[in-house]
């Protein structure tokens, strides 16, 4: 081969290698989100800071990155789910979009308490030595600048840093804590419970019981009944609703687990009365408005009516679902009452056999006013001597006595009428009357 042929072959190989490298770079130039880019750059800066800190510690000199500015020419697109994706332009490609990033120096005071101290031992072990770690997890950690066990320790100095690392990598918080040999929670049994019930918390690395340890449900301390390296048994505090639980051991906070405090709240809202203005002896229907306002189903329970402070027989009531209004027959009752004021009371779970969120609203009291009957006396034949001035009159001079009369004749007194057959006056409704004429016989008088 001549020198010219050799040179031509060399140039062809160079072009081929350049083309292959360009194609390879294009294959690796994938889309990314801005947060991912910032995380990766921040991780690189943090690693550089660690290196400079070690050199400063060894040489007795202060070394730090003062500032880093990057201008990145990118292409961007918006996905159907609203995400903005960026891609760095390939060699020879132009774009009007440029991202300008300016990473100023992080003050040392901002790093205190969250970065690993320089006098702590440094682990040079690779991530692959961590128990049970997978290649995918190693790649996820590498993506934010964690390449060794020492890097992992530096990024997990506090519970908040562990949670943030879990969020960025998608690796479970408990997995990271296993690698770091930190206390962690894996499961709570049951995941829902009533206040005051026992709860089992499983995890690991709890160690010996710390006298200052605390198990917190929604920020409220629980009573610790049993403690082992991987299992806790506690009594749930009086909390309600959904929230989280965690454990504080040797001043370190574990990861969080979701928790829901279930509760039953049997509330009697009203008592209706039909008819609303009853009369004495009338059949009355009373009905209680009962609902479960809690967030969990109740068991079967008892109810009781009380009438004028006299307890009625206790009745059984079926379970109520959350926010379910009762239609049970035990909430209705029929009775008759005498005239006057009466007190009616309805109580759910009168003997407090079940846990209830608010005992005060489990009973309701109402007053009932019962009217007396309207009576009409249509006949009363008791004798009266002085009430009727028309009938109970004595005429001593005429030897006439028209009394005594009775109440019926007094109430229904009327006028006389002509008998159509005889043409003479006869009594109509009045019980006693008489007919007289004056001396001239030109006037007739009807007397009652």
**By helix and strand content, what is the structural category?**
alpha+beta
**Tally the helices: what do you get?**
8
By CATH, the superfamily of the largest domain comes out as: Immunoglobulins
Largest sheet: 6 strands, mixed
The shape is elongated
**Helix coverage percent:** 10-25%
How many domains? The number is 6
Low-confidence stretches: 1-10, 105-116, 384-395, 400-415
Distance between the termini: 167 Å
Quickly give the CATH architecture of the largest domain: Sandwich
Secondary structure: number of strands: 29
Q: Per CATH, what is the topology of the largest domain?
A: Immunoglobulin-like
Description:
- 21% of the residues lie in helices and 32% in strands.
- It is α+β, with helices and mostly antiparallel strands and 448 residues long.
- The protein has helices at residues 3-28, 34-59, 108-111, 135-142, 149-155, 159-169, 173-180, 407-411, and strands at 67-78, 84-88, 97-104, 184-189, 192-193, 198-204, 214-217, 220-221, 223-227, 231-235, 241-249, 252-253, 257-261, 266-274, 284-292, 301-307, 310-311, 315-317, 332-335, 340-348, 363-370, 383-384, 394-395, 400-401, 405-406, 417-418, 425-426, 434-437, 444-447.
- It folds into 6 domains: 1-26; 31-112, no CATH class; 122-182, DNA polymerase, domain 1 (Orthogonal Bundle), CATH 1.10.150; 193-260, Sandwich (Immunoglobulin-like); 266-370, Immunoglobulin-like, CATH 2.60.40.10; 383-447, no CATH class.
- The longest helix is centred in the N-terminal third of the chain and has 26 residues, at 3-28.
- Strand 16 and strand 17 (310-311) form a beta hairpin.
- Strands 5, 7, 8, 11, 12 and 13 form a 6-stranded mixed sheet that branches.
- The model is unreliable at 1-10, 105-116, 384-395 and 400-415 (pLDDT under 50).
- It is built from 8 helices and 29 strands.
- It starts with a helix and ends with a strand.
